[in-house]
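Chapter review: from sequence to fold.
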Amino acid sequence: MSSGTTEPAVQRIFIDKQSPKAYDALVQTSEAVRAVAADAGLDRTLVELINLRVSQINGCAFCLHMHTRAALRGGDTPQRLGVLAAWRDTELFTPAERAALDLAEAVTSPADATAQESAYAAALETLTEDQISAVIWVAITINAFNRVSIMSKHPVRNSSRP
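The token string follows.
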């Protein structure tokens, strides 16, 4: 029974450190996906928007911290990053970014078949087939990294630099 106090958190293992071969394979996949995205013409800003939006949905603090810093270093603006969770309600994002974000959300929540079909159809109107494939791979990869960090409870350290 609970007496109103919370139990201390269970100490988690860092699965990336516990199983380095598996993590290294994920990192290699990420590097391949980054190259696929570049070859498809997706700029680093869009890739970071996908990484951030998927991490928002999944609630991955570690990845949000890392990819916010990367997006800012890549030239994105605090204004756009600040409203990313509500991207549908602003005109700050290009049609290609909007299509990619919608598709990335569908990848992250694949059980919603209607949203998935709608996002895919919209992506076909704006993105090339290579870009669609790259967006899906970027979303799949960041979803995997989110789960590694969430299950490991990777800490976000205080830093003052973007």
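Two observations follow directly from the output. Residues 129-152 form the longest helix (24 residues). DSSP finds eight helices and no strands in the chain.
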